[in-house]
């Protein structure tokens, strides 16, 4: 059978094709976070508090999660889901999400490198600055305290696969997390090296460390350091 395309049929076919092409172009122009089947859409519950790229809030209430090791972020999501880390909004948000979903979310934010939000610099006494600098850069051998940079990196950007960066965190957040570790409200995989360290810190030490960290200018576009188990002062379950 010979098929003949008439002018009318050609016009009909053209009209039928154009909307499909237009829809395809429109879909390509749609921002990733508006597409149902995209990781950007799946993390909208996260960015509501932590920022579109995980940069945290300007006042630092919600911490920066961008650029932290994916293994660390994944461990925290698992802890929130399983209830071993307590913060109700996060516990509810991830309560029914599977491991693969949480891993995808962690990898997404680990790959982000947004600019750091300016934060208010704390006012510290000279003694507090000196103590904070000592603990962060050299530790305190008399108390068995290693330097923060021994694990969290020379630029305080963390270490793969499971140690977070400390750069850009507000003092109150750092104080809160160290205190929770010291009193047993926060845990990590055994051996829990942070619990061991936090138990040796006084309230003054914690305030000095948090304040000194807030005085540091975060490195631009830096990434966590590669894993270096030889350099680490303690065995740490988060690095398995």
From TrEMBL:
Keyword set for this entry? Heme, Iron, Metal-binding, Signal
Q: Where does heme c 2 bind?
A: 148, 151-152, 194
The residues the record assigns to binding heme c 1 are 46, 49-50, 90
Which GO cellular component does the record give, naming just one? periplasmic space
The record ties this protein, via InterPro entries, to: Cyt_c-like_dom, Cyt_c-like_dom_sf, Cytochrome_c4-like, Cytochrome_c_Oxidase_Subunit
Post-translational modification summary for this protein: Binds 2 heme c groups covalently per subunit.
UniProt signal peptide: 1-22
What PROSITE patterns does the annotation carry?
A: CYTC (PS51007)
Q: Name one Pfam family in it.
A: Cytochrom_C
SUPFAM superfamilies xrefs: Cytochrome c
Q: By its UniProt entry, which Gene3D superfamilies does this protein fall under? A: Cytochrome c-like domain
User: Which GO molecular function annotations are given, in alphabetical order?
Assistant: electron transfer activity; heme binding; iron ion binding
Residues of the Cytochrome c domain: 127-217
Superkingdom of source: Bacteria
Q: Name it.
A: Cytochrome c553
